[in-house]
Amino acid sequence: MNNPLWNGGANVKLRLFESAAKFGDIIASFNCNTNNWVAIYIYKRLKFLGNRFLSQFITLWFLALWHGIHSGYYLTFFNEFIVMNFEKDIEAIVKKSHRIQEWLKLPGASPIIIPNTFLFCSKPEEYFI
């Protein structure tokens, strides 16, 4: 006998949301059903473009259009696009750096090192050229 699932209306992963260490965690924990629907029906169907950034940008543009015509929606989703791509780049830098990995092993170091890594190691000019 199948056990019924009672989480169909759950749209927030509260534990992940409250303990988020990255912007991606916040996105993954909030508005889960909408994120899942958009991933399946918009993002994955744009695979033919052959460009993840373009697919992600178009998906976020669709979400902004879905919300309405006010410029704040477009600005917010564009900001999400920028921040998520910076975050992916920073994670790659942190994983490659042996020095940062050693520092992260120190107790209490992560909350100090990760924001500073983001501030001093990112190359925002690459995204605007």
Automatic annotation (TrEMBL):
Pfam families reported for this sequence: MBOAT
Organism of origin: Lepeophtheirus salmonis
Annotated membrane topology: Multi-pass membrane protein
Highest rank taxon of the organism: Eukaryota
Record protein name field: Lysophospholipid acyltransferase 5
Lipid metabolism among keywords: yes
PANTHER family documented for this protein: LYSOPHOSPHOLIPID ACYLTRANSFERASE 5, PORCUPINE
GO molecular function, one term: 1-acylglycerophosphocholine O-acyltransferase activity
InterPro entries per UniProt: LPLAT_7/PORCN-like (IPR049941), MBOAT_fam (IPR004299)
Recorded family membership: Belongs to the membrane-bound acyltransferase family.
Catalytic EC class: transferase
Keyword Acyltransferase appears in the UniProt entry: yes
A single cellular component GO annotation: endoplasmic reticulum
Subcellular location per the Swiss-Prot or TrEMBL entry: Endoplasmic reticulum; Membrane
EC nos: 2.3.1.23, 2.3.1.n6
GO biological process: lipid modification; phosphatidylcholine biosynthetic process
Pathway(s) annotated for this protein in UniProt: Phospholipid metabolism; Lipid metabolism; phospholipid metabolism
Alphabetical keyword list: Acyltransferase, Endoplasmic reticulum, Lipid biosynthesis, Lipid metabolism, Membrane, Phospholipid biosynthesis, Phospholipid metabolism, Transferase, Transmembrane, Transmembrane helix
